[in-house]
Design a protein that fits this description.
With 137 residues, the chain is mainly beta. The protein has one domain. The protein has strands spanning 2-9, 16-21, 24-32, 42-50, 56-59, 66-69, 76-82, 86-88, 92-94, 110-115, 117-122. Strands 5, 6, 7, 8, 9 and 10 form a 6-stranded antiparallel sheet that branches. Strands 1-2-3-11-4 form a 5-stranded mixed beta barrel. InterPro entries: UCP019853 (IPR016767).
């Protein structure tokens, strides 16, 4: 779990949110948001990823952790240390679907993978007032 600052909400795509966590800024899709969120404020989140077809994961040639958006799309190149249930890029990106099970032989190594999008789950807090999840709705 991380405290993420909401940098931008897309007024045309309700699920799209741009966040900053520990110096990493990225655009993802919020799959769970049980409360009202506003730009400029911080909220507890869990970060994971979505694969629409097949996971493309391999040992990295470049020895630098990071997160890189590919073009104007929502696809990202993620580079970090592989663990059983997450990849550590400086922040943990969780594998909710068990993809990494097939790559256990790469655990502890720097790997890179291509994902179709970053998924954001806003975690429940006692601050939820039952209103809309977006400040612009």
């Amino acid at each position: 779990m991380y405290q993420a600052k909401v940098k931008k909400l897309n007024p045309h795509i309700e699920e799209e949110v741009t966040l900053e966590i520990q110096g990493y800024q990225f655009t993802g899709f919020s799959t769970v948001c049980p409360y009202f969120i506003e730009e400029g404020k911080e909220y507890p989140v869990m970060i994971s990823f979505t694969i629409l077809d097949k996971l493309d994961l391999r040992k990295a040639d470049i020895q630098t952790k990071g997160l890189q958006r590919l073009g104007d799309h929502y696809n990202y190149l993620i580079r970090g240390i592989l663990h059983e249930d997450h990849i550590d890029i400086g922040i943990k990106i969780v594998d909710e679907d068990g993809y990494f099970y097939d790559y256990h032989f790469l655990a502890g190594n720097l790997v890179e993978m291509f994902v179709d999008r970053i998924t954001v789950e806003f975690l429940y807090t006692a601050q939820w007032d039952g209103k809309s999840r977006r400040a612009d709705h």
